[in-house]
Specification:
single chain; alpha+beta; 5-stranded antiparallel β-sheet; two-stranded antiparallel ribbon; elongated
Length: 452
């Protein structure tokens, strides 16, 4: 634009972002490396002493000139009031003004950052999808109408098979929403009688179809895996134990994520109905079922949003059911190239003011390390650590989103895609059940308000 060339808006934004990164690298890293090299050069190879030249036009002052200058200074002190002569008080007020200006700028742009990171589209997408699967309709079966464990088969056929079949036009899902992979059915079972106040453990024993014992290892199990897999407990690895070792907090009890028996539906409607009929004839769900989870992932093309759905039906000891729908939305592409101009400007100013804030804190603690005992400086250190933690979580999440895109590209249509890793990353350091990176922003906002 400024160079006389008419660039595309996207390319111009990339050029400006690259320019800003180069400037930040030059002043934050490049200058530091340059000064270190200059200091090493000056300390190792001493330069020859230069002759000091005296300017002939320099004015020479005598004692009378210095006396006149001193009299002017004393005359000015008579016009200053008594309270302005206290130098310590003046320095204190100057420090308060500088501190107020520094933290005031940082606090205002931090509030702006908190506002622009809120995504209303994700909120309404989550709300509408949750209502779509929970409420009943004349066309499809809702979770709220499941009153017995046998009603789960009707719900799966109506809301998880027919609504995603292109040959059935029912108007529930538009063409902009597609199903990624297949739907996974997972149930947790209780078989042993348990006495005591602790929660009874879920069974992890291998069964034959129709929950028959003993289990026999047949040579064709790997070929007909759709028939024998629903009766074998799930297998986990070290990565899943680290990222997905979470619990679902139900109304009756808590349910682990990496346990239970799973069954995968197919991509076509006819094959899915065949699998569902097989599970129903073999009584896959019975009175020993404690809870059943229906996990699947949707992708919305218009909003570029990945929707992670976990539908749960709990069976109480009295035979009743308690349904619940858990829906989470993730924006896949949320890097700098897809941000608006206003968001980039606010992010730029926030970065500049955060660097000023960190520089003032570092200089203060560098020249006077005992200042760390001050409670206000400890609050400043907490603000800095929260910023670094938030940055680390964003980097980890973006790397996992990139791996998800590669996994979707290489995955088979008959495979269940586990895409909840970026959503589970904040749970590693979160202080509560529902961990999001916005939670750290709220913590930092409270600290900044206390500091401000």
């Amino acid at each position: 634009m400024l160079s006389g060339y008419s660039h595309a808006p996207g390319k111009l934004k990339i050029i400006l972002i690259t320019l800003v990164f180069v400037i930040f690298f030059h002043y934050l890293i490049g200058d530091s490396i340059k000064f270190v090299l200059q200091a090493i050069d000056a300390s190792c190879w001493l330069s020859q002493s230069q002759k000091i030249s005296i300017d002939e036009d320099t004015i020479h002052y005598n004692r009378l000139d210095y006396l006149k200058l001193r009299l002017q200074g004393l005359r000015g002190t008579h016009y200053i009031t008594e309270r302005h002569r206290d130098e310590k008080l003046n320095i204190k007020y100057r420090y308060i003004v500088n501190d107020f200006w520094l933290y005031g700028k940082y606090f205002c742009f931090f509030v702006c950052m908190l506002l622009i990171t809120r995504d209303e589209q994700k909120f309404y997408t989550t709300k509408h999808v949750k209502q779509l699967f929970y409420k009943n309709d004349t066309i499809y079966f809702g979770l709220s109408e499941i009153h017995h464990i046998s009603d789960v088969y009707k719900f799966i056929e109506s809301s998880l098979i027919n609504v995603f079949s292109p040959e059935i036009v029912n108007g529930v899902h538009g063409e902009q929403t597609v199903l990624l992979g297949v739907v996974r059915l997972r149930q947790l079972r209780l078989t042993d009688q348990h006495y005591g106040l602790s929660e009874p453990p879920f069974t992890d024993e291998k069964y034959m179809p129709e929950w028959r014992l003993p289990y026999e290892e047949l040579p064709y199990n790997n070929i007909y895996w759709r028939i024998f897999e629903p009766w074998i407990p799930m297998k986990t690895d070290a990565l899943k134990n680290l990222l997905m070792n979470i619990k679902h907090y139900g109304y009756y009890r808590n349910y682990p994520e990496l346990e239970g028996y799973k069954a995968l539906l197919a991509r076509s409607r006819q094959n899915s109905l065949t699998i569902l009929k097989y599970l129903k004839d073999c009584k896959w769900l019975n009175y020993n079922t404690s809870a059943i989870f229906m996990d699947f992932s949707l992708y919305n093309l218009d909003s570029n949003t990945l929707i992670l759905c976990t539908l749960r039906v709990e069976q109480t000891p009295f035979g009743g059911t308690i349904p619940r729908a858990e829906v989470e939305s993730i924006r896949l592409f949320k890097n700098l190239n897809y941000m608006s101009t206003l968001t980039l400007i606010i992010l730029l100013f926030y970065t500049v003011f955060f660097i000023q804030f960190f520089k003032a804190l570092l200089v203060k603690l560098w020249f006077n390390p005992s200042e760390i005992c001050d409670s206000w400086n400890q609050v400043d250190v907490g603000i800095y650590l929260l910023n670094m933690l938030l940055l680390a979580l964003i980097i980890i999440r973006e790397s996992m989103v990139s791996s998800i895109l590669d996994e979707i590209q290489e995955a088979s249509k008959m495979q269940f895609l586990e895409l909840r890793h970026p959503h589970s990353v904040p749970r590693l350091e979160s202080f509560g059940q529902h961990g999001h990176h916005h939670q750290y922003l709220y913590y930092e906002l409270c600290i900044c308000r206390f500091r401000y």
